[in-house]
Amino acid sequence: MSNTELLLMKGNEAIGEAAIRGGCRYFFGYPITPQSEVLEYLARRLPEAGGAYVQAESEVSAINMVFGAAAAGARVMTASSSPGISLMQEGISYIASAQLPAVIVNIMRGSPGLGGIQPSQADYFQSTKGGGHGDYRLVVLAPSTVQEMIDHTVMAFEIAEKYCTPVVVFADGMMGQMMEPVILPDIEPVPSEKPWATTGMQGRGPNIIHTLHLPPDQLEWHNNRLFEKYHQIEAQEKRSLEYFTDDAEILVVAYGIVSRVARAAVEKAREAGVKAGLFRPVTLWPYPSEALVKAAGKARKVLVVEVSMGQMVEDVRLAINGRVPVEFYGRIGQVPTPEEILNKITQLIAEVA
Q: Domains in the chain, ordered, with CATH?
């Protein structure tokens, strides 16, 4: 497949192909709707690319296989959906503590509990606030198109190896199942030095990868070192996009699939003479707080739209810090329509008129 060939691909399959083109040669996972096509695609394609695909007996087993492959210096990925990601949390905490690069794809479904297979954004707290035990952070990328699912998957491997840390590609069931035209990148990943990997000594001292730090001074030193890295990530990896924010009186904040709907609503509002704008965080952690504050410079109200009961709204309120009122509009199991968001924008502009 050429890098200039336009193809129609399902989101889940696009992630699988992007992972291979990004250098991933090992995948361990367990099927769960609505992300099972990631596994199905890689089960066929990875062996063709000289890689290995293993369907584990559970999500717990899968994430520990990821731990092992990452420790050996491999580019490795797993994918699951909300309840499956919950089962992986202990292993994710271990991988973060061990400072190993790995990519974790979450194609979210409705929750809590088994919920439903409809699209959801209700795993925001789980990924951006840690999810597992202990002091650690995950880089979280939020694509909004199938093309971005490709681009962000490739980017996730690059960030993971740059900082030796797990990275989450954060999408929803609608994006996983939808089909859009894409251009696949033609990439030749540059092999990176991995002096920490357990690949045999070959004239050097042994590499021992572990997460156990019993002496309190050693544990404190380890956590401080982790957070020095996280501060570096915060300084260098924040990403966001803005639409019509220069004079926006109503600023809509949304990510992922909802940001596409919100942009259509903002355009309709502009056509009606309402000064609306959109701020879209691309990294959910590190959260682009400074860019949000700047985008809200002329806003009289901020509207956060999510497919959840309101989780990102907390980070928005922290960033805005009382400068302007922050409102929330959410749906459960279904993505709001442009008309719904436009009605909310119209309501808010009438309140401040």
A: 6-194+210-236 (3.40.50.970), 240-352 (3.40.50.920)
